[in-house]
């Protein structure tokens, strides 16, 4: 009976995202008091220390309900388990597999792990990257959020590419 091997590199990528996320959040927390900021490029980029008790882009952050925090943690954990399961299945498929899908799932897993760690440890997620362009402010985010966004874009690209390939 042939043994199915698991490709380890996606897990190394996910772990790397987690380590980078934890290190940068620790740096921001140590260097700035909550609410403080350092202007790096005036009118464009600042480093801030923000504790986000809500979901992506600060949704539900104004809620003081324990239920909201517990629900966000439950959704985060369910998503983490789902992505980990997909990555486990795809990483075990023999032969050449879509590398974009493995990269996407690895980035999603690493980012989810980083933010879930914060939610469990502190009840909030540390955000510190703050951008504005031509007076338009983007919600503050972190390395985990960046990995999740890049992973989601790669996954959408992979799904659309696969669908287009089947149609032709």
Quick structural summary:
The chain is an alpha+beta fold and 168 residues long.
Q: What is the element layout, followed by pairings?
A:
Blueprint: H1 9-31, E1 37-41, E2 45-52, H2 66-91, H3 99-122, E3 125-133, E4 136-137, H4 143-167
Antiparallel strand pairs: 1-2, 2-3, 3-4
Helix pairs in contact: 1-3, 2-3, 3-4
Describe this structure in words.
- The protein is an alpha+beta fold and 168 residues long.
- The chain has 4 helices and 4 strands, in the order αββααββα.
- The protein has a 4-stranded antiparallel sheet with strand order 1-2-3-4.
- β1 and β2 form a beta hairpin.
- The longest helix is centred in the middle third of the chain and has 26 residues.
- The termini sit apart by 37 Å
Spatial shape: globular
Considering DSSP H and I runs of 4 or more, what fraction of the residues is helical? 55-70%
Catalogue the unreliable spans: none
Rg from Cα: 18 Å
The chain-level mean pLDDT equals: 86
Keywords for this structure?
58% helix; globular; 168 residues; 4 strands; alpha+beta
């Amino acid at each position: 009976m042939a043994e199915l091997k698991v490709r380890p590199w996606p897990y190394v990528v996910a772990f790397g995202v987690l380590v980078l996320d934890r290190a940068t959040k620790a740096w921001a927390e140590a260097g700035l008091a909550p609410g403080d900021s350092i202007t790096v490029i005036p009118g464009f980029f600042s480093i801030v220390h923000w504790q986000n008790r809500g979901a992506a882009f600060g949704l539900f952050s104004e809620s003081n309900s324990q239920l909201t925090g517990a629900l966000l943690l439950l959704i985060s954990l369910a998503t983490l388990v789902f992505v980990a399961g997909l990555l486990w299945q795809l990483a075990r498929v023999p032969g050449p597999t879509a590398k974009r899908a493995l990269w996407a799932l690895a980035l999603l897993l690493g980012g989810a792990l980083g933010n879930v760690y914060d939610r469990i440890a502190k009840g909030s997620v540390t955000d510190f990257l703050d951008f504005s362009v031509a007076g338009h402010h983007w919600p503050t985010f972190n390395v985990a959020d960046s990995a999740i966004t890049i992973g989601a874009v790669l996954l959408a690209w992979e799904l659309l590419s696969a669908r287009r390939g089947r149609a032709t």
